[in-house]
Amino acid sequence: MLEIWGRPYSSNVIPVIWAANELGLDYTLQLAGGSFGKLDTEAYAQINPNRMIPAIRDGDFALWESLTIVRYLCDRYGAGTLSPSNIQTRAIADQWMEWSASRAFGPVIYLFFATVRTQPDQRDPEKIAKLRDEAHEALTLLDQHLADKAYVCGDSFTMADIPLGCVAYRYFNVEVDRPPLPNVEAWYQRLAERPAYRDHVMRHFGTNPDEWSALEKACASEGVL
Ligand SMILES: N[C@@H](CCC(=O)N[C@@H](CS)C(=O)NCC(=O)O)C(=O)O
Q1: HEC letters along the chain
Q2: What are the residue boundaries of the GST N-terminal domain, all occurrences included (predicted)?
Q3: Which residue among 48, 53, 167 is best mutated to probe the pocket of ligand 1, counting the most ligand atoms within 8 A of its Cβ?
């Protein structure tokens, strides 16, 4: 049985959970990190010596680094679908996954922290505008890339859409004025039609505490929503 270790509302854990669900995998979620603890145990160090989440165990095989885990799951369980069989198409998928981590994730997550995770009276409008501009600049490149494609690698959904889809959800749901990005917006709407995206990415923004599950409340109390 596949084990996924982490908090299901943590930005680096969400891509792994989304991938596992796109692939229809059976897995157990081992709550870890933050107040769920477990990262400082010797048993966890055997799985991830960095003592960070996410990590997985697939039988005797342990793996860490979120996007490496997404690639592994897609290569092993989604060869020819989520992991493109054409080696050059797979390289393009890999390229956009790396780009998501190196260019897009940072400005968007800091924009998220500066807005959603900062009390309204403590928010810094200049910092927010700067991060919004940086996020927009990065996503403009993705917008150009998507001008003639439904998904990052072409006509079908692949692992390349997973990290960027997680970034897009945060970007489109922080309260800032966003200049238009028509192709990214159309792609985001396409992702929003996918049940696994709706269930595991779109529901963790924490807008209405009355509707949260006990798990969401536990995660929110440690500020991870
Ligand atoms: N590059 C790593 C980053 C992992 C990371 O920063 N994980 C954070 C949560 S998003 C963590 O483990 N924080 C400690 C904790 O949650 O207790 C990855 O993508 O997996």
Answers
A1: CEEEECCCCCCCCHHHHHHHHHCCCCEEEECCCHHHCCCCCHHHHHHCCCCCCCEEEECCEEEECHHHHHHHHHHHHCECCCECCCHHHHHHHHHHHHHHHHHHHHHHHHHHHHCCCCCHHHCCHHHHHHHHHHHHHHHHHHHHHHHHCCECCECCCCCCHHHHHHHHHHHHHCCCCCCCCHHHHHHHHHHCCCHHHHHHCCCCCCCCHHHCCHHHHHHHHCCCC
A2: 1-81
A3: 53
* 92 and 185 inside one domain: yes
- CATH, residue 51: 3.40.30.10
- What's the domain range around 112? 87-193
Residue 8's pLDDT band (cuts 50, 70, 90): confident
pLDDT, tens digit (0-9, with 9 covering 90-100), for 129-140: 999 999 999 999
Shared domain for 17 and 58, answered yes or no, is yes
The answer to whether residues 72 and 93 belong to one domain is no
Least confident of 64-68, 82-86, 175-179: 175-179
